[in-house]
Amino acid sequence: MINQSGYLATQIEVVGTQHKKLFKLVNELTESYHKNGTSEKLVDDTLRQLVTYADKYFLEEEELMLRSKIDPGHVNVHRMEHRSFIYDVNNMLTYSSNQEDLSALTEKLVGFITSWLTHHILATDRIMEEHIFAIQHGASSEKA
Question: Which range of residues forms the domain containing residue 127?
Fold first, then answer.
């Protein structure tokens, strides 16, 4: 189980709220897997929900960066990470029906999402947060 307390918490409320939904999806998958095992439907539903929600959430986060006037270079790197996540989850969705071992796929999916979210929050989102706060306190987007 992954939770948003402590080191994974964010100072930007809207971003924190969005992260909670992503954590909830991976935690529901993990909990269901441990209680009931896995199924193609469970994996497929989780992957589809992830793509749908992440697509919406990532767009909102990218719009926040643009409204905050974050340096375009950072916005582009951040956007590439988002696109890479969507691409990887879509690939898992495409190949999930070809997997004979759904347990291994479920574990791979939980590991991937947990790892990606942790890295993204601790690295990329932290930088975004620092940039937004610096700009709000008078720094230029280039110096933020």
Answer: 12-136
